[in-house]
Amino acid sequence: MHSYLEFEKPVADLEGKVQELLVMQDKGEAVDVGDEIARLQSKADSALKDIYANLTPWHKTMVARHPDRPHFVDYVGALIDEFTPLSGDRKFADDEAIQAGFGRFRGRPVAVIGQEKGSDTESRIKHNFGMARPEGYRKAVRIMELAERFKMPLITFVDTAGAYPGIGAEERGQSEAIARSTDACLAMGMPNVALIIGEGGSGGAIAIAAANRVLMLEHSIYSVISPEGAASILWRDSTRAKDAATNMKITAQDLLQLGVIDRIVSEPVGGAHRAPDTVLERAGNMIADCLSEFDGMTPEEVRKARREKFLAIGRSL
Known about the structure:
- The chain is built from 14 helices and eight strands.
- Helix 1 (9-27) runs antiparallel to helix 2 (34-52) and helix 10 crosses helix 11 (241-248).
- Helices cover 48% and strands 16% of the residues.
- Helix 9 (202-206) links the parallel strand 5 (192-201) and strand 6 (213-217).
- By secondary structure, the chain is α/β, with parallel strands linked by helices.
């Protein structure tokens, strides 16, 4: 059973009727409802296609936050063989919001880092809803340094509303940890590819997304602050989040046009959560394609290409 967003109500109503007829059919309470089921399903598919062809930035924000979207664990399970997680920052503790380790991507040894939000109440609390503390970013730096030492490319999966803003996190140097993680990303001599799979919120996202290639799922978002936060600052009214989302240019399509990201992974009609296997395969193919662009390049050439990519942002708008 799908979990429907507010703007998907017309589809929810139609698919609800389809489910009712299917139940009646299974119980033998309906004579012949096959044609009616097919008609309603066709109508629901058409409505879904029309809705997703005209999504606003705020709608995309809602899709990016959909609880059923594939998470870090899904991407690792589908794309990374022999994944071996590493824990702890060797300074304070382990942060479950950031998952990291090593494995094989289509036969190639790689380092993997990503934010995990969790899929139910228990796992969301365990992973702090994907909001990392300083020890999470220090763990990420540790993995980047190991990847550099053992000459492995890095793949990161970004999905966070932002770094955790708690008192303890600030006391342990949250901003410094984010800065050092960003610096480590930019300094790598091995190629790195970042994929924004849901929300890419502020420095908490860019700390593991300062990569040679930055990819986004079609309905993901990438922003310096959440629409609600921006609305609270600009208009002192968080209910104007829809206006903020439009003005901030946070969608994959806007950011590709601005040169902030490099490529977009298309999603099935209805979002990644409706056909996760399709999205996982498309993401894997695009990551492989991006990594292949750096085959044969020296560490100096990889760093130079990354540096030029980021310096070019905003120069030719």
